[in-house]
Amino acid sequence: MSDASANSLSREKIQQLLAAVGSGPKEDTTQTEAAEYDWQQPHYFSSAQLKRLDDLTKEAAKEMAEKFAKFCNDEFDVTVVSTTEHFAAQLRARDLESRRANYYLPFGSAPDHPDGLISIPAQTAFIWATQLLGDSESEEDSGRDLSKLEESLLLDIASALLDAFSGSCETCDFQPDESFITRPLPLELQGTEALCKITFQVRKSDGGKSSEAHILILCDKLRTTLGQTVQAVNRSSAGDTSKAILDRMQQMPVSVKAQLASAVLTFEEIMNLRHNDILLLGKRIDEPIDLIVDNRVICHGWPAKSDGRYAVIITEDAEHYE
Question: Is-above-0.85 flag for pTM?
Fold first, then answer.
């Protein structure tokens, strides 16, 4: 086929070729490395924004360690365990499945409009309260509710942690609420909002139990600090995109089969075929042969030869016979 004929593919022919090739794709034996992608999780931030957020949370962790040292008169290590994105409905469902409610401290830049929560699991709340009091109660007491004094001290340390986080974000000025809330995910959300969950681990520098707490914040509230979520990109016009697709399609390899004719035989007739037998095919000699792409007839023509090889002279498109 000449270059001129290759570039004159009509829309109908392209559709026929695509339908034929797509109906039975060949097995791809190449090995391709692909990153995992969870469609059930929001992907609000770009990789550059996540890197920026990682730097900010590490700065906040250092400040948090100093806050713990000041409150507990001991050395502490605070590390960032993970930074993940979730839909509000997913977090609420997980919270409902929990046996014990977390201690939630709402915070925001405006009263009565929380932008996020400090989330302290019940076990962590007990550990922190006893550390703040310098108490050494047995583990059996970890299932009880906190006293008013313990909850007040926990509120102080939670507010200090929020202050450390706000200090690492230049554009954040979050203020804590005056008390904890223990009902599941106490934010007035529709469920589809994207929340960023930052998990911190706290441990005494000389060892001891580790504990975790979380900062849950609406991704939208971090947008100013981390930069715009939508990056400006060079976009091609619709015409350029269509031309690029057509150019690529014209280079796609397609297996073509020329079929003279066919016949239907019984199994007994096939078993009785011998040398020099004549098999009558189901097509007259004045009918053209079929040109087939993946079991679809796309053209008709006449058998020929060229340069010592079989050839087919294309006479008509298959659609003319339909």
Answer: no
Task: Enter the tokens of residue 79.
Answer: 């590390």
Give yes or no for a contact between 159 and 105, defined as CB atoms under 8 angstroms apart.
yes
Contact 76, 147 (CB under 8 A): no
Residue 119 forms beta bridges with which residues? 104, 214
| Boundary of a domain, candidates 194, 226, 258 | 226
Q: Which long-range contacts (CB under 8 A, 24 or more apart) does 48-51 make?
A: 48/227, 49/226, 49/227, 49/229, 50/83
Is 30 part of a structural domain of the chain?
no
**pLDDT score recorded for residue 143:** 63
The boundaries of the domain holding residue 279 are: 3-25+237-321
Beta-strand ranges (E) seen in 55-193 are: 76-87, 103-108, 116-120, 175-176
Check if the beta carbon of residue 293 is closer than 8 Å to that of residue 20: yes
With contact defined as beta carbons under 8 Å apart, do 195 and 18 qualify?
no
Give the tokens for residue 236.
Answer: 């091609």
How far, in Å, CA of 83 to CA of 87, rounded?
A: 14
Q: What is the dihedral of CA 109, 150, 77, 79, to 10 degrees?
A: -40
Could you read off the pLDDT of 156-184 as tens digits, one per residue?
999 999 999 988 887 778 899 999 998 88
**Number of domains comprising the chain:** 2
pLDDT, tens digit (0-9, with 9 covering 90-100), for 78-119:
999 999 999 988 888 888 777 667 899 999 987 778 899 999
* DSSP reduced 3-state for 243: helix
| 255, amino acid identity | S
What is the distance between the alpha carbons of residues 224 and 228, in angstroms, rounded to a whole number? 7
The answer as to whether 34 is a domain residue is no
Q: Which residue's structure tokens are 């706290």?
A: 202
- Residue 159 near residue 167, CB atoms below 8 Å: no
Q: Write the DSSP assignment of 35-78 as a string of letters.
A: ----TTS---S-HHHHHHHHHHHHHHHHHHHHHHHHHHTS-EEE
